[in-house]
């Protein structure tokens, strides 16, 4: 295996708590954009969405994923010819959107070197992350290392783009070993948490040659839609009352690194600034406002029926009748449906679950 020169940057922690490999092996393992557990991920439905777009959307040049989440939908249409616009309100989504959809230079050499360095760090000292999330979501050893790596990323990043790539690598590494069922509303009470696999950063697989025209936004979708225009507008809002800021608060905390006070068993920080209206009683009105102000040729709205859930929190906020009514005011509507087994929080008994894509050919686009 090839070997690389030692990194010259040193962490702020004292040398007696840190071990840096003088000559570490290059990273050979990688991860892809879909390798993350995420509520409502459309990865397994990409061919379904692609088929609809191919059949119904003619001559499109811009594709906007306005509730992007992991970014898998935008990545599917990221061919170097289509301009991808991706938006999300969570910082933990934004760093990954920037990584996979905005990196337009080959960072492999510099990032490989720095990931090697971050993986080599070791410490026995506690930090913000280990004091709050050790022996719960993570073993104390992993939690100490995660906190140390997060601080080191701020020091060794030479650009915001490089920082986003390293943070994305850390986020995927953390998510892979977390003592959860894929979200952070709670953690498993495991007597074997000390046997948790070591946190290990990998190299993201980036199609950097296709990213030169793309744009990433971190805004409220209803505010952004008033500022942009696109050919295809893909809308995948939250379906029910479960806030994504509640499910991914820990990752949001780790990326922002403001070290806020956390509370409760789940150890959540204040999330009032990243709550979605689409999880609340005003969801129908929010969708109507979004559609009315969309400047596009085609609209695809993903919205599953969530079946018959025993937990009311899992039931859809917007009815099919309202969705069709809102879209018909914009243009001609078609509905496409596919049976689908969803990734849920593990508390819902959902039967008859289908994923629907409501398609609208806009009657009078303003483009």
What is the general shape?
Answer: globular
CATH homology-level superfamily of the domain at 38-94 and 210-241 and 280-367: Vaccinia Virus protein VP39
CATH class of the domain at 38-94 and 210-241 and 280-367: Alpha Beta
Provide the succession of SSEs.
EHEHEHHHHHEEHEHHHEHEE
Q: Share of helix among residues?
A: 25-40%
Query: How many β strands by DSSP?
Result: 9
Distance between the termini: 53 Å
How much strand? Answer: 5-15%
> Can you tell me the CATH topology of the domain at 38-94 and 210-241 and 280-367?
Rossmann fold
- Please give the CATH architecture of the domain at 38-94 and 210-241 and 280-367: 3-Layer(aba) Sandwich
Whole-number radius of gyration? 21 Å
Tell me about the largest β-sheet.
Answer: 7 strands, mixed
Identify the strand order in the major beta sheet.
5-3-2-6-7-9-8
* Number of continuous helical runs: 12
Which spans of ≥5 residues are poorly predicted at pLDDT below 50?
A: 1-25
Computed structural class: alpha/beta
Mean pLDDT: 88
